[in-house]
Design a protein that fits this description.
Blueprint (H helix, E strand, L loop, with lengths): L5 H36 L3 H11 L14 H20 L5 H15 L4 H4 L15 H8 L1 H20 L12
Helix pairs in contact: 1-3, 2-3, 3-4, 4-7
Length: about 170
């Protein structure tokens, strides 16, 4: 095994730390952007219909349509999603708020159960594992968003466990 000069090892570690900070920022705020944007869309008629097509087949959410109409359910979901996004975004300043948002995000992305309950998820004529473009491929992306929410939870817990309940003392995001 070839030995690397000490100067290159130091620069390599600095590059890795920079990439780590950038990836943490993109992961956290990419998740925030997606959840916030999707939350805002819940106030539109076309998104309300889309939500109904998925949620009305879910044993976890179908009951809500006995209490709320399609638009009100979607708007309520939008408010929740926007709140989740804002709580996750607060992580670098208020990690305890981000813990709450991250846990809520994890719960939201566990809607992967829709893959099982929504008609048309599997490509007609092929079945499992061939996902239909919509809604199958639309729903499976939640696996990555679930992973991002779990990461923001761990990141915020790391700050709080380190005694930094209000703001991180490191330059990492």
């Amino acid at each position: 095994m070839e030995h690397m000069p000490a100067g290159l090892r130091v620069k390599g570690k600095a590059v890795v730390r920079s990439i780590d900070r950038i990836s943490a920022f993109v992961l956290r705020y990419g998740l925030v952007l997606v959840v916030f944007w999707i939350g805002c869309l819940k106030f539109t008629a076309y998104e309300s219909k889309g939500v109904f097509n998925h949620a009305s087949h879910s044993p976890l959410l179908a009951w809500a349509y006995h209490i709320l109409d399609v638009r009100d359910f979607s708007r309520g979901l939008g408010v929740v999603e926007i709140a989740i996004a804002l709580l996750i975004a607060a992580g670098p300043v208020w990690p305890k708020l981000s813990i709450v948002g991250s846990l809520a995000g994890i719960g939201m992305f566990l809607t992967l159960s829709f893959v099982i309950t929504t008609p048309g998820v599997w490509q007609a004529g092929y079945g499992f594992p061939a996902l239909a473009a919509s809604p199958g491929q639309f729903l499976v992306k939640d696996v990555v968003l679930l992973g991002a929410a779990i990461w923001t939870l761990a990141d915020s817990l790391r700050y709080v466990a380190g005694g930094n309940g209000s703001a991180p003392q490191t330059s990492q995001i």
